[in-house]
Design goal:
heterodimer, A: about 325 residues, alpha/beta, 11 helices, B: about 325 residues, Rossmann fold, eight-stranded mixed beta sheet, 12 helices, about 30% helix, globular
Chain lengths: ~325, ~325
């Protein structure tokens, strides 16, 4: 068994607003092993990006612990050491706004090298070339600006920038959801190839379960700031247990009969995700749950292990 | 296909920009029969929305320019109707639902005001105040809105994305339009909400017998929602087929590539379907616009533009591989 690279224990992130406390992340625990991909799936407002930003140190956790290689990193990025920041990198959803339009791609890729004192030659050209080669972009792109290249290519540049410091852990926050399927396929193939070559660990955030099936080793489902089911990718799609997971799976439009057969039947999606300011009492999913029992509206279920590496937070399985 | 309700013939639309003329639509042919649910699939920038905006006559002219073509609808050419006299094409029984309901609704007017305006200015309506309000309430009930009386006095910001899109659907259907154009109506919604909106829309158009054009980039939605599909690439229709047939036997190399690129729930890994990138409309490739990315490219593809070849009565493909 490989070692755990990142462990999150009882992580909470609350935001104080004029309308009340938003419990964006409300006590979640998970761990990621070296060189695996953990897929974090949820609808908008489920708190999946907040988890990513807290791991990155963009937010300070309200409670809980984040351990990176047994070192406590539950603090903001400016209190983290440079060596630590070098190890953890992120790729954002929209490369149009995460890349500076007034900098050439060479300048964009040089910045992390300079900050971490990694530039070897004075011009830095060699390393920028190596990065562009890694993401299969032509070398003359170095002198272009982001407006001159396509959305997929911008995301390639964002990936190259994340890899510039030679990290071991990369957070991918919906890296392909703004892109077309053919471009998405290309980027995902590249990410998986880079993972093998550079021995990377990914926290992959998405709302696309079909994509998740093809990239993740393990999948965690989030709903209203809590994780409701975690399982290995294979087990997850073969035997989904939580009613919310079943609802998500049965809502996916698919392109073949073989996939149709995998979808759980009879679970019609209904209702909408409630506001995280007013989280329902008991199990937060009970208002939409087709198999709701009395206990669900009063008691919040706890995480139970129902199989090897398969945990579910639901009264039905306890 | 039954007798066509809308028929687009050889439509050429371009945009005049500083650097020259963008040849976007390059001879688009498209038809929708009565009561049909037709899908229009293609990637970003392939001209799906431009085509439909031309039909609706809401394309900004200039910079856009319709160079050639006809849009036949009930014996009239929509490109030549007098917009002032018909309150645009909307008055002729065509409605459109847009991708982003937040942008489609005016944030400073209540839902009631906006919905009742639509009813007031549509054809053949009783214009007395109470009747209009009743019709607005029943329209909201049709789209399964809870507490329609209260919703009428709400502003768009007070509703969720899924509810806003249902308001837009109500507005599109309340006029009694025969043809409904839905332009990626669920792209901005979560998957469970998308499922609910699609089921509702399907039920409503079936009840009313509307013809529907569903624009999307999701092949999954096309498979579950439509009867017939057009696949579009770089301003050209490349394939038209009944939905079932397209998914069992896609013929055009682009369609095949697109199908391969879709991630599957069965977990077969990721295949890169189509290599390269979409062409520049300022200097589009000669001949077949797909030829620089095509794995089966032949000499003729660079020289001539392929017309639609019939592979069967219902299945057409614009590719020289299927000549004869």
């Amino acid at each position: 068994m490989t070692a755990e690279i990142l462990t999150v224990k009882g992580l909470k992130k609350y935001f104080l607003t004029s309308r009340g406390t938003v419990k964006a992340v409300d006590g979640i625990s998970f761990s990621i092993k070296e060189a695996e991909t953990l897929g974090l799936v949820g609808e908008s407002g489920s708190g999946k990006s907040t988890v990513a930003y807290t791991v990155m140190g963009m937010y300070r956790p309200t409670a809980g612990q984040i351990l990176f290689r047994d070192q406590d990193i539950s603090k903001e990025a400016r209190k983290r050491s440079k060596a630590l920041k070098k190890q953890i990198q992120i790729v954002f959803q929209d490369p149009g706004s995460s890349l500076n339009p007034r900098r050439s791609i060479k300048q964009i890729l040089e910045l992390p090298l300079k900050v971490h004192g990694l530039s070897k030659d004075k011009s830095g050209t060699q390393q920028v070339e190596r990065l562009l080669e890694m993401v299969e972009l032509p070398l003359d792109y170095m002198y272009k600006y982001t407006e001159a290249i396509g959305g997929g290519e911008k995301q390639m540049v964002a990936i190259a920038r994340a890899l510039a410091t030679d990290p071991s852990f990369v957070v991918l926050d919906e890296p392909t959801s703004a892109l077309d399927v053919s471009v998405q396929a290309k980027i995902i193939k590249l990410l998986l190839q880079l993972q093998r070559e550079l021995h990377l660990t990914y926290l992959f955030i998405t709302h696309d379960l079909s994509l998740m099936r093809n990239v993740a080793t393990r999948v965690a489902i989030m709903y209203l700031g809590k994780i409701c089911e975690v399982a290995s990718a294979l087990e997850f799609f073969r035997n989904p247990v939580h009613p919310y997971t079943q609802m998500l799976l049965s809502s996916i439009p698919v392109v073949s009969e073989a996939e149709e057969a995998l979808k759980p039947k009879k679970v019609l999606s209904r209702g909408e995700i409630p506001s995280p300011v007013n989280v329902p009492p008991g199990c937060s999913f009970h208002l939409r749950c087709p198999e709701k029992k009395d206990i669900c509206s009063t008691d919040d279920p706890v995480m139970m292990e129902i199989g090897e590496g398969h945990t579910v937070r639901c009264h039905l399985s306890s | 296909m039954s007798e066509p309700l809308l028929e687009i013939r050889d439509l050429h639309v371009g945009f005049d920009i500083y650097g020259g003329h963008l040849k976007v639509l390059d001879g688009v042919n498209f038809a929708v029969g009565k009561g049909e649910k037709v899908g229009l699939v293609g990637e970003t920038g392939c001209g799906k929305t431009t085509t439909m905006k031309t039909v609706m006559r809401i394309l900004p002219i200039p910079p856009a320019r319709v160079r050639d073509g006809e849009i036949g609808y009930k014996g009239k050419d929509l490109l030549r109707v007098n917009l002032k006299r018909t309150r645009g094409v909307k008055g002729k029984g065509i409605s459109m639902i847009f991708q982003d309901p937040t942008a489609a609704l005016n944030p400073v007017f209540t839902i009631g005001r906006q919905l009742m305006d639509v009813i007031k200015y549509s054809r053949g309506q009783d214009r007395s105040g109470d009747k209009i309000r009743d019709r607005a309430i029943s329209a909201l009930k049709d789209v399964a809105m809870p507490d329609p009386e209260r919703i009428l006095s709400n502003y768009p910001i007070q509703l969720s994305g899924g509810m806003r899109q249902r308001i837009c659907i109500a507005m599109a259907l309340v006029t009694g339009s025969e043809l409904l154009i839905a332009d990626e109506p669920t792209t901005s919604l979560d998957v469970t909400i998308q499922d609910q909106v699609l089921r509702l829309l399907g039920k409503l158009v079936e009840e009313r017998g509307n013809s529907t054009i569903f624009i999307t980039h999701s092949l999954g939605i096309v498979r579950e929602w439509t009867n017939r599909v057009y696949v579009m690439y770089a301003g050209n229709m490349v394939e038209a087929a009944p939905t079932k047939e397209l998914f069992s036997k896609a013929l055009h190399p682009y369609t095949q590539g697109l199908m391969k690129a879709v991630p599957r729930l069965t977990g077969e890994g990721m295949a890169e379907g189509v290599t390269g990138r979409i062409p520049n409309y300022l200097t589009p490739p000669s001949g077949c616009r797909f030829h620089p990315r095509c794995p089966h490219v032949m000499l003729v593809c660079e020289q001539e533009r392929p017309p639609f070849f019939d592979v069967s009565d219902t299945h057409q493909v614009a590719c020289f591989l299927y000549k004869e």
